[in-house]
Amino acid sequence: MEEKILQIKKEALQEIEQAENQKMLDDVRNKYLSRASELNNLKKGLKDVAPELRPKIGALTNEVSKEIEALVNQKAEEFYQIELNKRLEEERIDVTLPSTYEPFGHIHPLTKTINEIVEIFEHLGFSLIKNEFSPEVEVEKYNFDLLNVPKEHPARDVQDTFYSKLAKNVVLRSQTSNAQVRQMQNSRPPIKIISPGRVYRSESVSARKNNLFHQIEGLYVDKNVTFGDLKGVLNEFIRLYFGSSRPTRFRNSFFPFTEPSAEVDVQCIMCQGKGCPTCSGTGWLEILGSGMVDPNVLRAVDIDPDVYTGFAFGMGVERLTMLKYAVDDIRLFFNNDIRFLNQF
Ligand code: DAH
């Protein structure tokens, strides 16, 4: 009996040794350690063994099955480690490989400027108004008449403004100032709004001029609004947009819809005021027009100029963007060349 057990052990050890994979090892485990195994049958047959031999034989069977089990487990662990190493090797992430590049779009420089300016004016108490009060396809009445622009004013000329061939008196707006009139017609003071948008002019395209560009219109109408308020608000805007270091000046000007009127210039960023082609040698670049709303404009929308006063301004978005980032050709904003856009 003892021999038989030792023989089983020998065979089991040999088969464990020869097992090449986990599947073969499982078969070995089954054969030698399951309920139906030879060893187990021997254990069951112990009662037929002479009583004095039983403890020894019993102990030996137990010992052998424990030994087989330990070896099977050890070998299983080896297989597991081999498999694990193989997977680690195969699935290893090489962090030095270039990653898959997912290009994604970003905000256009003009939109960025508009957002920035809108945020500054919101901080100064102005509200952003909706497009319904500033259509791009406009009737002359809002683009010119109600803004006190005389019938024979050169701005109305087809040389300057795009007229519809189909509908009489319909233009592509040449300024965002139409937003002022529409806003004043649709609400009562206090009015404190800004309105950004596209404007169109019939001009020959150059580094400084495009047929399409953007403006931001501002309007503040209330009791006791003064020219001092205008200067205060615009100076604060300039400080927040350019930082305090950029020299600016207010210059006396004329617009049909404001009296008095002023234009604001910023020192040319290309030549730092020395004079260059960009600033036509003057050292200054105009960024906005402004003034106290003309009493005629208030009267035309039924606001009493003896009770209310206001100021208005209109600024060029391209100009402001060019000045901030030293861009020297307005056409770059419209070509959508990714090499240009990526720099913002
Ligand atoms: N609309 C003028 C332009 O396009 C700019 C402007 C000047 C707007 C004075 C205003 C203003 O609101 O008060 O040149």
Per-chain topology:
Elements: H1 2-18, H2 22-33, H3 38-44, H4 54-90, H5 109-123, E1 127-128, E2 137-139, H6 140-143, E3 170-172, H7 178-186, E4 191-200, E5 212-222, H8 227-242, E6 248-255, E7 258-267, E8 284-293, H9 295-300, E9 309-316, H10 317-325, H11 332-335, H12 338-341
Parallel strand pairs: 1-4
Antiparallel strand pairs: 2-3, 4-5, 5-9, 6-7, 7-8, 8-9
Helix pairs in contact: 1-2, 1-4, 2-4, 5-10
The structure holds 3,4-dihydroxyphenylalanine.
Keywords:
binds 3,4-dihydroxyphenylalanine, two-stranded antiparallel sheet, 344 residues, 2 domains, alpha+beta, single chain
Structure description:
Helices cover 41% and strands 19% of the residues. The mean pLDDT is 92. The protein has 344 residues and is an alpha+beta fold. Strand 6 and strand 7 form a beta hairpin. 3,4-dihydroxyphenylalanine (DAH) is lined by residues 175, 177, 217, 255, 257-258, 289-291, 312-314.
Short summary of the structure?
By secondary structure, the protein is an alpha+beta fold. It has two domains: 2-90; 109-341, Bira Bifunctional Protein, Domain 2 (BirA Bifunctional Protein, domain 2), CATH 3.30.930.
